[in-house]
Amino acid sequence: MKQFLRWIILGGTLFFLAKALKDNWIGVTAIRIDGLGWAIIAIATGVTLLAHTWAGWIWTWILQDLNQPVSPPQFIQVYLKTNIAKYLPGNIWHYYGRIVAAKNANVSAGAATLSVLLEPLLMLTAALIIIVLCSSQFAAANSTFVLQILQLLSLAIVLCAIHPWFLNPVIRFLYKLKAKKSAVTTEPTVPFSLKSYPLRALLGELGFMILRATGFILTMFALGSLNVNQIPLLLGAFSGAWLLGLVVPGAPGGLGVFEATAYELLRHHFPSALVFSAIALYRLISILAETAGAALAWLDERLAKS
What we know:
Oligomer: single chain
Radius of gyration: 21 Å
Shape: globular
Number of helices: 13
Strand content: under 5%
């Protein structure tokens, strides 16, 4: 059933995007990129690469919050090398690669697993914060009052979910459950716990989301003119599309879901051909930045060993 649902979601998003391309084909082919536009696209690629590098550093903060001392350069390399694996079917292999690499670096299996679960949760929280902050220009134009209340409620829930008062009892419960299944008679010792609210990591993920959105905004600017007062709208729309791409199943790397959501949110505010072209180009920029990050991390690792 899960596989069937994934194919339905993938097929639906691809059909939607194909229809959007058909409807805007003439406008898309009429768009031209000049020398300044290519320079802006290069900057957008660099900003996107910086965002992924920054996310790798935040991962080390999460592990440190779990009392796991790690080497930031080494784990940033791991993060960048595994990041491209999110496009593989299943959308879990980048997490699996990070868990294996962390365990090989003497990080406890529980802490490694929790770190890769906390990271997307913190990213989701950061995206919700941006959506709420941009609601004056974004949510008000694209959602009802009830939906805005649901956004605030969802944000409150995830903010509470990452609090040690909630997480640490869950960790203890899972360890007791694991001990019971393993027929351990003594009280299991929990090797890690959150000592404080992961505020630093949450603020870091806010920076990650802003950097990713900046790459998208620069891509839009490379193809057409923008006004400063349109930036909150673009920031909120990007965050909403990125969030759905993260949580909707069957979309490796948010492929298809992000594009369809961003197009639907922005086509009423910008020319449809511009929106479609920017979204497609930004996906290429993202893949290029992620591939470059993995290649640079691999090269840096090889140079360090030589």
